[in-house]
Amino acid sequence: MALTVLCLASYHKGFEFLREAKRQGCRVLLVTSASLRDEEWPRDSLDDIFYIQDDKKRWKLDDLLLGTVHLARHTPIDRIVPLDDFDLEKASALREHLRLPGMGETTTRHFRDKLAMRVKAQDEGLPVPAFVHVLNDDRIRNFCRRVPPPWFLKPRHQAGSIGIRKINGEDELWAVTDALGDQRSYFLLEEFVAGDVCHVDSIVDDRAVLTAVASQYGTPPFDVSHSGGVFTTRLMARDTPETGELLALNERLLGALGLVRGVSHSEYIRAADGHLVFLETSARVGGAHIAELIEAATGINMWAEWAKVEIGGGKTPYRPPPMRTDYAGLLVSLARQGTPDLSGYDDPEVVWRLQKQNHAGLIVKSSSCARIDELLTSYVERFRREFAAVLPAADTPFD
Length: 399
Fold this sequence. Notes:
Elements: E1 4-9, H1 15-23, E2 27-33, E3 48-52, H2 61-72, E4 79-82, H3 88-98, H4 105-112, H5 114-123, E5 131-133, H6 137-146, E6 151-155, E7 165-167, H7 170-180, E8 187-191, E9 195-205, E10 208-217, H8 221-227, E11 231-235, H9 241-257, E12 262-271, E13 276-280, H10 290-298, H11 302-312, E14 327-334, E15 350-353, E16 359-366, H12 369-386
Parallel strand pairs: 1-2, 1-4, 2-3
Antiparallel strand pairs: 5-8, 6-7, 6-8, 9-10, 9-12, 10-11, 11-14, 12-13, 14-16, 15-16
Helix pairs in contact: 1-11, 2-3, 3-4, 4-5
């Protein structure tokens, strides 16, 4: 009997997951925000679509739970899959209530709650920045004595760099925590570690990391989201000790946090002294068009492979497709123009152009890592001159 897969998407994404699930013979159901009713979903791959009222794409869990239970009266549900960070906790709550396979609420915390993932990683002996829960005054004061500013104040349940604030001293910190009031326990304070920010995008099945792609950001995402500029990332050279060390740490991390199967986008910092520090992780496909970057270089579509892993559920062995060994780089910027003209970027290495209002974006691909670096360096300067615009830091995901 065909599996029924219920997908949650509070944001407009995950199309290749939905298509692949249908190609695998599943009955595919989508729950999404009412505000996304008119978006272009792959409706030919959907057996039904349900809309939930939302406030800035935030759903009431009770509404979702009651709707899902009502659906399950006449439609058996076999898998529940969240397509965005903000849907992970909802999906785990539904799985717990319906007793379905997949991550429960405790493990999900390790991939959504920045405090939980740091505590667990630290307990498992993995390198993390110094941090403190913004809860007990004495512990906060002790942290401030031990760790020199600046610090990052981070919301525990946001995604990426959303809502992160740089704090430059203790007076500023106490003013901010006082303003947070009863909400302060939803934040942590973290050491600022200067260095290169890397990310590893992984496919996991039966607790084994079967595919992992290591990349490095240009300007760190926090700086781009708060100060503007051009977002870039590129695949790292494969056969280097630095890449090997990063992939090994990523494998240790995902094992320690308990990811049984699925995908992960995890971030690390290589500090000035060369040591690696775990920054944060997630159980989702990387945003900001990183999935397109990986597909350009390797031929692997992370969304489609995730669907295969979820549908297999550990009962059908999953084998990732062979990876191409090209390199690729990604540039994305807010643009002053409504429809930026990218026709002047006509190097043969350009393989993808972003089609989105007030955004400019490209992916370049080459067999040479050095050529990717050369193109990114040149294109970043041109993007700054020709397109780049700055808006206040977003309180929603950058996708």
